[in-house]
Specification:
Length: about 220
């Protein structure tokens, strides 16, 4: 069962998601009942230098135009917001949600292990090799990058990004708009308040009030 999909944004995040969708489709096309995604193109505020699109993994992805292309749609269309920045993802989502014809499916890509009892919002992207354990709740427009993992009873707010190889132990809460940096580890029971950034390789062992940047082992407020 193939469904069309428009990607929102350009750059490395979009290209990597295209590659993951290509891998996902290659596996699922062996099963006629499985879902596959037909990428019809991408939108961005800045046109590509070529003016027509990008070649990614041997596939040409056409440039469709800026946000107006989606905002002017009069029939249902699927879109995925392909940016790692929580604040930019929120800004784009709030703009596009003005057109109720735009739908934001959850993309659960290849080689993931996800417990059946998780609860998930809308517009989430769960990348290759992600692991999500039992009784986890994901908000809207959450982005789990390659190899990230959430243990039991995790609570993840809206517009949260988990960078590659992030590890959250059990009963961890990540509030809205957090950007959890590459390889960050968070121990059991910790809460990270909204609008927090963690530096790459941080180890978070205490609650973080929010609206700050932390880094280090153990992680300490640096901004």
């Amino acid at each position: 069962m193939e469904q069309s999909l428009i990607l929102v944004g350009s750059g490395g995040c979009m290209r990597e998601i295209v590659w993951q969708i290509q891998e996902f489709n290659q596996i699922n096309r062996q099963n006629s009942q499985a879902r596959t995604w037909d990428i019809t193109g991408y939108t961005d505020l800045i046109p590509p230098q070529s003016g027509t699109g990008e070649h990614i993994g041997g596939q040409f992805i056409p440039y469709l135009g800026n946000d107006d292309y989606l905002l002017n749609q009069t029939t249902p269309v699927n879109a995925a917001i392909c940016t790692g920045s929580p604040s930019l993802r929120r800004k784009i989502a709030e703009k596009l949600q003005k057109n109720t014809q735009i739908q934001f499916p959850n993309l659960i890509l290849g080689n993931t292990n996800i417990c059946r009892d998780i609860r998930i919002g809308t517009g989430c992207i769960i990348s290759m090799d992600a692991r999500i354990s039992t009784n986890v709740i994901l908000g809207d427009f959450v982005f789990l990058n390659l190899g990230s993992g959430i243990c039991h009873d995790g609570r993840i707010g809206d517009f949260v990004t988990l960078s590659p190889d992030v590890r959250l132990a059990g009963n961890v809460t990540i509030e809205d708009n957090c950007d959890i940096g590459l390889g960050t580890k968070v121990i059991q029971g910790v809460t990270i308040g909204r609008d927090t950034i963690t530096g790459a390789g941080s180890v978070v062992i205490n609650d973080i009030a929010g609206n700050c940047t932390v880094a280090g082992v153990p992680a300490k407020r640096i901004r």
